Automatic annotation (TrEMBL):
Plant non-specific lipid-transfer proteins transfer phospholipids as well as galactolipids across membranes. May play a role in wax or cutin deposition in the cell walls of expanding epidermal cells and certain secretory tissues. This is Non-specific lipid-transfer protein. GO terms for biological process: lipid transport. Residues 37-123 form the Bifunctional inhibitor/plant lipid transfer protein/seed storage helical domain. The keyword Signal applies. Residues 1-32 form the signal peptide. Pfam families: Tryp_alpha_amyl. Keywords: Lipid-binding, Signal, Transport. The keyword Transport applies. It comes from Cuscuta campestris. Belongs to the plant LTP family. GO terms for molecular function: lipid binding.
C-alpha cells in the first residue's frame, strides 16, 4: 500500500506520550492550573508518524515546536499532572507507538526530562 492511514486514536496516543515527557519537566510557574487535554494533544499531532516510524530521521520540526509549546503551557504541578494523565490515556489507544522513540523524543528536540519516559510513569508524582 503506498499510503498509510493513521487513525485519530493513534494521533492522540502519540501526542499523549510526547506531552507526558514534556510537561513533567516544565518549570514551575505562578499561573493557575487549567490546561486541557486538547491543549496538550493538538500541538503534538505532528509527532505521530515519527513515533510510529523507525527513528531513522530526526523528528519533524513541527513536532519539536509542539513539545516546546506544551512545555510552556504546563507551568504548574496540577497542569503537568493533568497533561501527564492526558498523554498516558491517549497513548494507551495508539497502535504502533514505539516506546523507545517516545522516550528519546524530548532529548532529540532539545528538551531535558529528568526521569525515564514510560507508560508506567506515576503522574501523581510529576511536580
Amino acid at each position: 500500500m503506498a499510503a498509510r492511514v493513521i487513525n485519530s486514536s493513534s494521533v492522540w496516543l502519540a501526542a499523549a506520550v510526547v506531552c507526558m515527557l514534556v510537561v513533567a519537566s516544565a518549570p514551575h510557574g505562578g499561573e493557575a492550573a487549567g490546561i486541557t487535554c486538547g491543549q496538550v494533544v493538538t500541538p503534538l499531532m505532528s509527532c505521530v508518524s515519527y513515533l510510529q516510524g523507525n527513528g531513522a530521521s530526526p523528528p519533524p520540526p513541527a513536532c519539536c515546536q509542539g513539545i516546546t509549546r506544551v512545555n510552556s503551557l504546563a507551568r504548574t504541578t496540577p497542569d503537568r499532572q493533568t497533561a501527564c494523565n492526558c498523554l498516558k490515556n491517549t497513548a494507551m489507544k495508539l497502535n504502533g507507538l514505539k516506546p523507545d522513540l517516545a522516550e528519546a523524543l524530548p532529548a532529540k528536540c532539545g528538551v531535558n526530562i529528568p526521569y525515564k519516559i514510560s507508560m508506567t510513569t506515576d503522574c501523581t508524582k510529576v511536580n
